[in-house]
Specification:
nine-stranded mixed beta sheet, Rossmann fold, 9 strands, alpha/beta
Length: 378
């Protein structure tokens, strides 16, 4: 018999109209800041950009359409380690489909992967090889969206990975693959440590393996120097959000939870102008409507104040790097990940590869898991 706390319950998103009316009222009464003439993005996200996007949010964006598209996928909730966990679970019609767990990061949501679910579960529908089909599980990170808010400290990457191991076991999967982006990549890598007997492969879009501080930078190959220069540029020009959320997330959360325009401006540091407006706004909306702005920010604090697991794992790993600011170096990763199967860097820059470059992303992911399946027993 299933314990009450282990129960998996069907879930459907149904946001009350009063919440949408309240959002519209707040947008109508936004107090806007000014931009310095000609400053562009030098001082941060420009008011002109936020104002234009907020106008579309108020008059053109259709949450009910986004809600319906999300509800077209089977969704569920269950309680793990005292925390409600929301997830999409879409089974493939192919009998030998490999279970695949996909984890988003901040300030993302499950929307990051909804555009590729059909191609993953039903490859025949897109002319792909049906031998590489997946049962897809896409959970909302604890504290994010419909998996939040969290009610106690400690929800970092390690605790999330342990919760995901419980989730996949609860769904009846004795062997599964995992993929992730941003913090979802960290969770995926940590799964290789906490559940190596069931995890058959890891596919991530960032792995920040960098040289030790005592290495002579001038003696490094040009490619490695370029990676370090890119990271240094990010820390100098765009890393303030990381420092703030790692040290004082609650101080910031008061403003973001009260002002939709403020939330949009803050999130636009990552969800910037290279992404389509509906994708940006649906991610922002899920944080806003679920009241999980603060608990999502807290993930950074937990990660900075809890010692991360740092041991080698022999679970096969694939790295597909797109984001120019967050690229690692393979030789620096090999001590922790001795079973690297592929390490690809793509010219198409973007932090949300599954959404921005689905065909390239899918080809990389399918190729990796095809090699993994070829070596599985039975």
């Amino acid at each position: 018999m299933t314990k009450a706390n282990d129960e998996i319950r069907p879930f459907r998103i149904d946001i009350p109209q009063r919440d949408l009316d309240d959002l519209h009222d707040r947008l109508d009464h936004t107090r806007w800041v000014d931009d310095l003439p000609g400053s562009g993005w030098d001082y941060g996200v420009p008011a002109s950009y936020v104002r234009e996007l907020a106008q579309y949010w108020r008059t053109g964006y259709d949450w009910r359409d986004a809600e319906a598209r999300l509800n077209s996928y089977p969704q569920f909730t269950t309680v793990i380690d005292g925390q409600r966990v929301h997830f999409l679970h879409v089974r493939s019609p192919e009998q030998d489909a490999l279970p695949l767990l996909l984890t988003h990061g901040w300030p993302g949501t499950v929307v990051e992967y909804t555009g590729i679910i059909d191609a993953l579960t039903s490859p025949r529908s897109v002319g792909a090889d049906p031998a590489i089909a997946f049962d897809v599980v896409v959970p909302s990170m604890p504290g994010f969206g419909f998996s939040g808010p969290t009610r106690e400290p400690g929800w970092d990457g390690g605790r999330t990975a342990r919760a995901w191991a419980v989730l996949m076991n609860r769904l009846g999967y004795s062997a599964y693959g995992a993929g992730g982006n941003d913090w979802g990549g960290v969770v995926t890598q940590t799964l290789g440590l906490v559940d190596p007997d069931h995890l058959v492969g890891m596919h991530v879009t960032q792995l920040l393996a960098l040289p030790d501080e005592d290495e002579d930078i001038a003696a490094l190959p040009p490619q490695e120097q370029a990676v370090l220069a890119s990271m240094a540029e990010w820390q100098q020009t765009r890393g303030a959000y990381y420092d703030q959320q790692s040290s004082q997330p609650q101080t910031l959360a008061h403003a973001l939870a009260d002002s939709p325009a403020g939330l949009l401006g803050w999130f636009s540091q990552i969800l910037g102008p290279d992404l389509d407006r509906d994708f940006v706004l649906t991610n922002v909306m899920i944080h806003w409507l679920t009241g999980t702005v603060a608990s999502a920010l807290r993930f950074y604090y937990e990660a900075a104040h809890i010692e991360a697991l740092d041991e080698p794992t022999n679970v096969p790993l694939a790295v597909a790097q797109f984001d120019e600011m967050f690229r690692g170096i393979r030789r620096c990763a090999e001590s922790s990940f001795p079973s690297i199967v592929s390490w690809n860097t793509y010219d198409q820059p973007g932090h949300y590869a599954a959404h921005q470059y689905p065909e390239i992303f899918l080809a990389d992911l399918r190729g990796f898991f095809a090699s993994v399946k070829a070596h599985l027993p039975g």
